[in-house]
Amino acid sequence: MGAAAREKILGRLRRLCLALPETSERLSHGAPTFFVREKRAFLMVLTNFHGDGRFAIWCPAPEGMQQTLVEADPERFFVPPYVGHRGWLGFRLDRGLDWDEVAGIVEDAYAEVAPAKLVDTARAGRA
Hints:
The protein is of the alpha+beta class. The chain contains four helices and six strands, in the order H-E-E-E-E-H-E-E-H-H. The chain has helices at about 5-20, 65-70, 100-115, 115-125; strands at about 25-30, 30-35, 40-45, 55-60, 75-80, 90. It is globular and about 40 Å long. The mean pLDDT is about 95.
């Protein structure tokens, strides 16, 4: 996947993440990373991390979801290094995307770290 295609996907991810209440973006560990209230990371976008050949996101997932998704579709989902032991999920962006699925993953990740009031606000805005 070329740089232009990656940038287009990053732009769409950026719109999804920044549409959620009190979110921001900055580089963290060299990767575009999205935060709640500028403190708690809920999604990182990584390209070829330590030579793994992936264009992917890493994000927290609801309890049990990481294992379920990785077992069901290991071509798209994986356990990321460093944060995988805490239940974070890796999701490949270079394997054909269903943007409804991506939006759901983003929303779940946000809900894992955002305060309940912000999650309620986000859900009310979606209804």
